[in-house]
């Protein structure tokens, strides 16, 4: 990244970090894999920066990654993660709450790093909740597996399938 960054403008080096335990694959005797990808915020690029077995994301590891990118002139302005339990622990440690969605950049008192939940993962969680339990709208109205099945039944004669990913969990 250090070499690639030399040919990029400062704007193109504005970076976010994405880490996601939900895409892990168990290989060998390992229980998990931590994957961290740096991505351009303004320009379209991405680069894996960590792939480590049985490694939990900690504040120290996160700050080490941010500082390594900073030393290569990549300006980390945000992190994105799923809402897995270990990531929730990290958010608590960083004091991320509904009222505080950023933390101080480890290299500067004047810069903040913003924290975002992975929206696609949140949608999957909502889908799973609807199918496994239900959403209660009012005392008389619930949205559950039956309504999802009704939507899927609309697809019976279509070539284009509505909400096809819902099938993966039913």
What attributes does this structure have?
elongated, 29% helix, 170 residues, TNP-like_RNaseH_N, 6-stranded mixed β-sheet, 8 strands, alpha/beta, General transcription factor II-I repeat domain-containing protein 2-like, 5 helices
How is this structure best described in words?
The structure is a single chain. With 170 residues, the protein is α/β, with parallel strands linked by helices. It has a domain at 19-117. 29% of the residues lie in helices and 25% in strands. The chain contains five helices and eight strands, in the order αβββαβαββαββα. The chain has helices at residues 2-6, 59-71, 85-93, 119-132, 145-153, and strands at 14-19, 33-40, 46-53, 75-81, 102-104, 112-117, 135-136, 142-143. Strands 3-2-1-4-6-5 form a six-stranded mixed β-sheet. Strands 7-8 form a two-stranded antiparallel sheet. β7 (135-136) and β8 (142-143) form a beta hairpin. The protein is elongated, with a radius of gyration of 20 Å. The termini are far apart. Residues 32-94 form the Transposable element P transposase-like RNase H domain. Pfam families: TNP-like_RNaseH_N. InterPro entries: TNP-like_RNaseH_N (IPR048365). This is General transcription factor II-I repeat domain-containing protein 2-like.
């Amino acid at each position: 990244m250090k070499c690639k960054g030399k040919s990029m403008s400062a704007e193109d080096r504005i970076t976010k970090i994405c880490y996601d335990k939900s895409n892990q694959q168990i290989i060998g005797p390992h229980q998990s894999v931590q994957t961290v990808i740096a991505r351009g915020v303004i320009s379209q690029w991405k680069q894996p920066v960590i792939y480590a077995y049985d490694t939990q994301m900690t504040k120290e590891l996160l700050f080490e990654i941010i500082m390594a990118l900073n030393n290569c002139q990549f300006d980390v302005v945000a992190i994105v993660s799923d809402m897995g339990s270990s990531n929730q622990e990290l958010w608590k440690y960083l004091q991320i709450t509904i009222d505080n969605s950023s933390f101080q950049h480890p290299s500067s008192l004047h810069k903040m790093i913003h924290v975002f939940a992975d929206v696609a993962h949140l949608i999957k969680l909502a889908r799973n909740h609807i199918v496994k339990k239900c959403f209660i709208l009012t005392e008389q109205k619930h949205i559950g597996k039956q309504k999802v099945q009704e939507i899927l039944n609309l697809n019976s004669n279509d070539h284009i399938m509505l909400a096809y990913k819902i099938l993966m969990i039913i």
